[in-house]
Structure formats: C-alpha cells, structure tokens
Amino acid sequence: DAGVRVAAVDLGATSGRVMAGTVTPATLRLEEVHRFPNGGVRAGGALFWDVLGIHREMLVGIAEVARTGRLDGIGIDSWAVDYGLLDRDGQLLGNPYSHRDTRTDGVMARVLEQVGADEMYAVTGLQQLPFNTIYQLVAARGTAALESADSLLLLPDLLGYWLTGEVGAERTNASTTQLYDVTTQDWSVELAKRVGLPWAVLPPLRDPGSVVGPLLPDLAEQVGADPGTPVVAVGSHDTASAVVGVPAEGDDVAYISSGTWSLVGLELDRPVLTEAARLADFTNEGGVDGTIRFLKNVMGLWVLSESVRQWQHKRVAGADLATLLDAAAGLTPLRTVVDINAPRLLPPGDMPARIRALAHEAGEPVPQTPAEVTRTILDSLALAYRRHLRSAAELSGRSFDIVHVVGGGSQNHLLCQLTADALGVPVLAGPAEAAALGNVLVQARALGADLPDLAAMRALVRRTHELRRFEPRPGLDWDAAEARVVRP
Ligand code: ADP
Ligand code: LRH
Fold it and tell me: Which top class of enzyme applies to this chain (predicted)?
C-alpha cells in the first residue's frame, strides 16, 4: 500500500510551513518542504496580514511537494478569527487585518451592553476575546469594504478559494467567530442581525474532511500538480488540527497547544455552557468529528517571541531563544509572577517594558535582565496553565492524569518541566508539528486511508513519533505564587 501523500499547509502567526505528509496503514511521515516567516505588517496606521505573500509562499511549498513525489491532496489550516471580504465579483476587498490591530479597542464592551454576555455565551459558548470576528466586524461597520462585501472568508477559506474558486466556511474555524451557534452548529444569523452585521456575507458551512474542490487548472499547471488534485477541508482552525494530532491515549488527557498562543484545555463530546463556565470565560470551539475544544486562550509564547524581537532590535547580546532559555533555567523559580493574560500584552510592542510594569504594579520584584524577563514569562505561563487546566477539569466534571504539550512550544523544555511541576502530573511533549499532522490525517482519511476515528489517528501519531516525558518535581509553592498574581 503506497498510501496517500498530501501537502499540509499550516500557517502560524510567526511562520508558515508546507509539509509533505505520507500516510500508510503503519506509517505517518512528515517532511517540511518549505517554511517562511510570517507576521503583522503595519501600513496606513493599521496592522494587516500579508495575505498575497502567504498565498505565494504556499504555492512555492505546494510545488515543492509536487516536485518531490505524489500530490494526492492539499489542506490548509491557520490561526483563527481573521478574514478577508470578497466583493460580488469575487475580488478581495482590502487587506485582511491582524486580530492584534487596535481597531477593536472598546468594541467588545459596547457590544456586550447591547447583547448580554450570558445570552451570547448561551448561543456561541465562546471566550470573550476582543478580537473575535464578531467584534472585528462590528468595528468595521459602516466601512466601504463591509458595505460592499458579498462574502466573508476566514483566512484558510480565502486561500482555499484562491485555489479552487469555491466559497465556503469550514466549521472548526467558523466556530471561533462568535457568530456560530455551538448547539445548532449553524451560523447565528440572529446574533449577526442583533449587532447590525450584514449576515448574508456568512458563506455556506462545510465539514472538515469534505472536499472543497479541485485545484484550478492554471494553478495545477503552475505548481506541477495533476489536473483535478483535490483541495480538502481539514480542521482549518490550526488548533483543531493540532488537537487531532495530540497523541493521547484514553480520555483522561489534557492538552496545551503551545505556539504563538497557548490553547489550554480538554476535548469533550459536548459543550459546557454553564454559568460557571461563562464566568471562568472558557471557550467551546468546534473540533473535528463533532468534538468540542473546551479551552482557554493564554497569551502564550507571543510574549517571549515579541520580547526577543525587541531585544534583537536593540542589539542586546545573548538574546537568542536558546541562550535565553538556558540562562532562565538557572534563575530562582517563581521570583516574579505576573498576569500573563493582561490585555496590554496583546498588541505588538515593547513586551519587556510591559512585563516590568505589570510586575511593578503587582508589587513583585521587577525583572531586569532578558533572562529574568524570560523566566518571569515562563513561570507566569506555567502558573496560568495550572489555573486553567484545573478549572477546565472542574467545570467539565472531568479529570486528567497527564498533559500533552504540542506545537513549537513543546520544544521549550524549561516550560514543559515547569508545566509538569505546576500541575503535579507528567507532561508528554511533542509532536511540535501536531497541527500539520492533524491536517495530514484528516486529508488522508478523506482520500480513503483507513483511519476510522480520532483514536486511530492518534494511535498512528503515537506509534510514529517520539515524545519527551517530564515528571513533576515537588518543592515549589505554586499556591503561594498563584495568590500573588494580580488579575483584573
Ligand atoms: P505558530 O504556529 O503560532 O507560529 P509554533 O507552533 O510554530 O507557533 O511555535 C512557535 C514558538 O515555538 C516560538 O515562539 C518559540 O517560542 C517556540 N519554539 C520553536 N522552536 C523552539 C525550540 N527549538 N526551542 C524552544 N522553543 C521553540
Ligand atoms: C492559534 C489560534 C488560536 C486563536 C488565535 C487567534 O494559532 O488559532 O486558537 O484563538 O490563533
């Protein structure tokens, strides 16, 4: 059985990658054929994504997959919530904004005065994040672009549209917009109308695992693919794909999808829409095969990568990630902890200064050196993971005896160890490319591979990928550290 060989396009906020994934009954191989930097582009006072650049780099990667072997399918996943608008001729209206753009400042509070937070949670089950698509759209109300829009496409759907000409919204990503009814699993037209949005821009929904359409002939020729090569809708929300790739065994498992953001939670069969879950501000995002990702967005390694960017910009010596992590590992644990989800950490900027300000305001020792700031970020992340995983278990009536860490952050051994220490359970780290693996697996099944369910996919990941285990070390007073965190 030669199996299936597909291109998995996995777009992260800091880098995009195109992988060749090969699946046979006993093997799962992932080969990175193209990686390119990604990040916000500031222009005209706003923060955008370079979506044409992403499209171009994606095609370079797909061509490389085709050049090096078979190309049976193409799947795209990316970060959530951001979108492009098409006019009635099918042309993109303006540059897609980054969710870190400040145009949404204050919007969420205004909307919540109009639609009660409880009502909104009952419908969408989503964590209130200021950049959820609904708030971005409310911020865009009255703009020429939104007024002349015919359809709204989330980023993977926009890229898929350029590949196939097909307009649609893949469900896992649609579930992050806060315009999606988590119970009926359909757009909440009602909610869109209530907040004055042109609901007709919301395109037909499609399921992960369905075929979007054949690659357009001119593009097939450009990338050297067979005519008719299918583009497959995977879990197009990167976190949905990453959770497919979590090599979990059994049900008592928690995960941290650790990249630019940390997504921290559990996989459930049905949403938890209780008042307690709402007050804890937990999200219920839709996963592959009808699962629910019950989780919390944590500010994640963004705070560190943005700090590194700042230090490198200022030409601070020893400000590469490996050196910083090495130095941070030798520092006093839990000396300074801050609220790592503080809203001021969301936009790009001088993170070290913001971390120092948070420490100062909370009466914590102010971290001075880059290593100290790094240590504060990692201790504070581990503390947040502990807080949220414990409440995820409590709110859902579940328990866990192991935590899987996947994504680029699974390579941060210090953070993995601190996470095990904080939670008092072992951490299994890896794969770093869980999202790409989930993308590959869902495509492979759509193209005929015998992977009946998530358990079979995860078993294949377990069999084919080496994981690193971190045992919890006793001795630190995480409760006392938690009590020091000042949160709004
Ligand atoms: P995204 O998909 O959001 O772009 P990734 O899953 O690629 O994010 O993770 C990126 C993060 O992973 C980086 O910000 C960095 O902190 C971490 N990372 C990547 N490689 C390593 C490494 N070798 N050691 C430690 N951390 C790493
Ligand atoms: C992670 C992610 C996360 C979203 C954020 C916008 O990449 O998709 O799940 O909340 O980006």
Answer: transferase
- For ligand 1, atom 1, the nearest C-alpha belongs to 12
Q: Which residues of 215-230 are buried (b: 16+ CB within 10 A; e: fewer)?
A: bbeebbeebebeeebb
Q: Please give the helix or strand (H or E) that residue 56 lies within, else none.
A: helix 51-67
CA of 244 to the centre of ligand 1 (A): 19
DSSP per-residue letters across 426-460: -EEE--TTHHHHHHHHHHHHHTT-S--SHHHHHHH
**Residues identified as active-site:** 238
**ipTM tops the 0.95 cut:** yes
Question: Ligand 2 centroid to 120 CA: how many Å?
Answer: 20
Does the beta carbon of 305 sit less than 6 angstroms from any atom of ligand 1? Answer: yes
Residue 171: exposed, middle, or buried by beta-carbon count in 10 A (0-12, 13-18, 19+)? buried
- For residue range 115-170, what is the model confidence (pLDDT) as tens digits? 999 999 999 999 999 999 999 999 999 999 999 999 999 999 999 999 999 999 99
The per-residue pLDDT for 487 is 82
Asked whether the whole model's pTM tops 0.95, one would answer yes
CA of 468 to the centre of ligand 1 (A): 16
Q: In this structure, is the dihedral angle defined by the CA atoms of residues 146, 149, 152 and 153, taken in order, positive or negative?
A: negative
Residue 389 three-state SS: helix
pLDDT on residue 466: 97
Yes or no: say if 238 and 206 are a contact pair by the CB < 8 Å rule: no
Measured by CA distance, the residue closest to atom 19 of ligand 1 is 408
409 lines ligand 1 (CB under 6 A): yes
How far is CA 474 from each of CA 72, 174, 325, 376, rounded to the nearest angstrom? 49, 42, 21, 19
